[in-house]
Amino acid sequence: MTRRDDTIALRHMLDHAAEAVAAAQRRTRADLDADRLFALALVKLVEIVGEAANRVSSPTREAYPGIPWRDIVGTRNRLVHGYDQVDYDVLWRIVTDELPFLVKQLKTILSNAARTEP
Q: Domain ranges in the chain?
């Protein structure tokens, strides 16, 4: 994978993680049970974050060991293959507790990459 491809995948991760975080603002965990479309939207956004993470090359993943790449991809796999057993408590924790930090990390990575572009 080229550096450009990694940048695109990282951007997809950032965009979809940020969208999930924004969608959860002013909402509650109970909304996941009450609003099926909201729940499906969060599931899909987190899936896309994991799929994009899976497309990031090994050298780039190794350059950023603070990002839990395996966990992110594993979450995607669990959501896709265990679609009928999604634990909304876990999904809510990911969106509200983990994704905001990931968004910050990705913004820093992409900002640094933009400064080093030829």
A: 3-113
- Count the neighbouring beta carbons within 10 Å of the beta carbon of residue 27: 16
> With contact defined as beta carbons under 8 Å apart, do 75 and 50 qualify?
yes
Using CA atoms, how far apart are residues 7 and 60, in angstroms rounded to an integer? 10
Catalytic residue status for 12: no
Residue 23's H or E segment, with its range, is helix 3-24
Per-residue pLDDT tens for 8-43? 999 999 999 999 999 999 999 999 999 999 999 999
Spot the catalytic one: 26, 36, 81, 115.
81
81 is known as an active-site residue: yes
Q: What is the pLDDT of residues 93-108, one digit of tens each?
A: 999 999 999 999 999 9
